[in-house]
Amino acid sequence: MSSDKVGAELCKGINGLDKVVLRESRGASAEVYLYGGQVTSWKNDHGEELLFVSSKAIFKPPKAIRGGIPICFPQFGSHVSLEQHGFARNRQWSIDTDPPPFPTNSLSKAYVDLILRPSEEDLKIWAHSFEFRLRVALSPGGDLMLTSRIRNTSADGKPFTFTFAYHTYFSVSDISEVRIEGLETLDYLDNLQNKERFTEQGDAITFESEVDKIYLSTPTKIAIMDHEKKRTFVLRKDGLPDAVVWNPWDKKAKQMADFGDDEYKHMLCVEAAAVEKPITLKPGEEWKGRQELSAVPSSYCSGQLDPRKVLLSC
User: Fold this and answer.
1) Is residue 313 part of a domain?
2) Has residue 31 been placed in a domain?
3) Of 31, 181, 271, 292, catalytic
4) How far apart are CA 181 and CA 308, in angstroms?
5) Which helix (H) or strand (E) holds 124?
6) Whole-angstrom Cα distance, residue 35 to residue 31?
7) Domain span at residue 76?
8) Distance (Å, rounded) from C-alpha 116 to C-alpha 110?
9) Does 2 reside within a domain?
10) What is the pLDDT of residue 265?
11) Exposed, middle or buried, 11 (CB in 10 Å: 0-12/13-18/19+)?
């Protein structure tokens, strides 16, 4: 990896943790910590931060970093004997020096390939051999792309099953000024009501209290509109049928040691995920899941953002 202004540079981050800084020629940038394989910063060409990381985030193993894009694998949520959201987000990843070819739409030099393999300790808590390859890339236009490839490398002939999410924390001006388009009329599982299944009734999703929902069979494109900043995030996804929407609101925010009491106002998690129907891989099989994020200016139309125009233009 080069240390040119365009491309990828390995350097030290908070508490001496290794991170890779990606820079594009027009000025967009991203930071990826090898701890957790986690994106912790994504800035546009004006230097504006687009992801939320808590001011109280703990950059110290074994605590997961609160914010950015944690990777939830081999499970999303809390089930069986594994820790909440699995262990990929608090393990040390390595730079992948011999990645398989990744199909790419751009000639960007600003990317890094990481790999995670299970340690002996990991195999004691989840007895499956795997290779998890992750590419994080910035397009010349500043879009952020994450591509995950998970392969069953087991020699014992056994399949394994997992759930997955890119736990993306978007930075927003004020949660009460944000709306999501693309999930209306869909079924969702409500984590605040024992995963009971409901159908979304509103014509757009807005926020006035705690939300923790898993939307099912979602479209490949979701728009997150920030009225105050006149900015729209467009999330495109592939291989990830579900979408998790989460904001802890005030009461839960106060219960989290690594999260500021009022920070819920300035963040929103919208996560490309595979939760409802777990993925099963036989030995030698590979799964691929991709997320692409872009931030586009939004214009007001009759006092509101025009989501159809945003979605059609992307």
Assistant:
1) no
2) yes
3) 271
4) 9
5) helix 120-125
6) 12
7) 7-308
8) 20
9) no
10) 98
11) exposed
Report, in this order, helix, strand and coil percent for the chain, each rounded to 5. 10, 45, 45
Q: Provide the number of structural domains found in the chain.
A: 1
36-49 pLDDT per residue, tens: 999 999 999 999 99
CA distance 42 to 138: 9
Taking only the tens place, the pLDDT of each residue in 240-259 is 999 999 999 999 999 999 99
**What are the binding residues for substrate?**
66, 84, 89
The percent of residues in the chain predicted with pLDDT above 70, rounded, is 91
Residue 314 domain-assigned (yes or no): no
Of 42-46, 167-171, 309-313, the one with minimum mean pLDDT is: 309-313
* Active-site entry in 31, 167, 181, 292: 167
Q: Report the pLDDT value the prediction gives residue 120, as an integer from 0 to 100.
A: 94
Quick check: is 263 catalytic? no
83 is catalytic: no
Report pTM: 0.92
Any idea what the CATH number is for the domain that residue 18 is in? 2.70.98.10
Which of the 8 DSSP states describes residue 101?
P
**Residues whose CB falls within 8 Å of the CB of residue 160, separated by 6 or more in sequence, listed in order:** 74, 128, 130, 152, 154, 280, 281
Residue 148: count other Cβ atoms within 10 Å of its Cβ: 22
